[in-house]
């Protein structure tokens, strides 16, 4: 009963978006309030800047102004105003976009960081050149900018999968840990909304020579296992035969899920996993047996062969 209510709630709150623009697709009556609540900037002192002052501050026309936030007076300047740009991006789309582009290419790192903070939300209205800047800022000379760019990528990738595809492809293979971790975090989020995009990336990653990279990619297979897709099933079957045990272990973790959603496929894959030389792979295979019908001749024979196997 609870599961049914959860599914109904998720269905009511799900917002289909265009993969190129990130804008919500029109599917009947508008749900603007849900969009705003689900995709907005975090609170901060920039929220206290009066709307007429946001653009002058963000462009440098106005150097600073005093605001009150949380009962305390603050002096805000250009970086704060850049963070406030999403507040006016709908009503003053062109000027906001120009101010954001200028901020992303500014000489001061703190201004570029502020621009990256505002980018995901302003991009819902105007995307031109924004993702080109993001692509470059991920390799910025300043570490704070690179970190902000990686965080920005994790936010925008699930909303703009097409626009960030090449950038994500590069970051997933980055030798810099913080960058690759952020990219894989983005890929995990994509599993929920655009699993077909994740499959494309995994199809490439699981062919890489780097075992660590294949292992990290294979960790996403359990998230995709519920997707009834032949492409996903191919990736799982392929990974169960990988030369690296770490990859096979992650693939074997999908068997319990497949036992419920695709039992005939799970039975076929079980024949490979049950006789694997790695203990963890076999353990995952055995767990999946608890969810499968073992009364058929083939499954009985498989269980008996497994019991006689030298690894048992």
Describe this structure in words.
- The protein is mainly α and 312 residues long.
- The chain has two domains: 17-193, ARM repeat domains (Serine Threonine Protein Phosphatase 5, Tetratricopeptide repeat, Alpha Horseshoe), CATH 1.25.40.290; 195-312, Leucine-rich Repeat Variant (Alpha Horseshoe).
- The protein contains 19 helices and two strands.
- The chain has helices spanning 2-13, 32-38, 51-59, 78-83, 93-104, 109-122, 130-137, 143-156, 165-172, 177-193, 195-205, 211-218, 221-224, 230-239, 245-252, 255-261, 263-273, 279-289, 297-308; strands spanning 65-69, 72-76.
- The chain has a two-stranded antiparallel ribbon with strand order 1-2.
- Strand 1 and strand 2 (72-76) form a beta hairpin.
- Helix 9 packs across helix 10 and helix 15 packs parallel to helix 18.
- It is elongated, with a radius of gyration of 24 Å.
Any descriptors?
single chain, 312 residues, mainly alpha, Serine Threonine Protein Phosphatase 5, Tetratricopeptide repeat, Leucine-rich Repeat Variant, 2 domains, two-stranded antiparallel sheet, 19 helices, 2 strands, disordered N terminus
In a nutshell, what does this entry contain?
The protein is mainly alpha-helical.
| Main sheet: strand order | 1-2
Largest sheet: 2 strands, antiparallel
CATH topology of the largest domain: Serine Threonine Protein Phosphatase 5, Tetratricopeptide repeat
Fraction of residues in H or I helices: 55-70%
CATH superfamily of the largest domain: ARM repeat domains
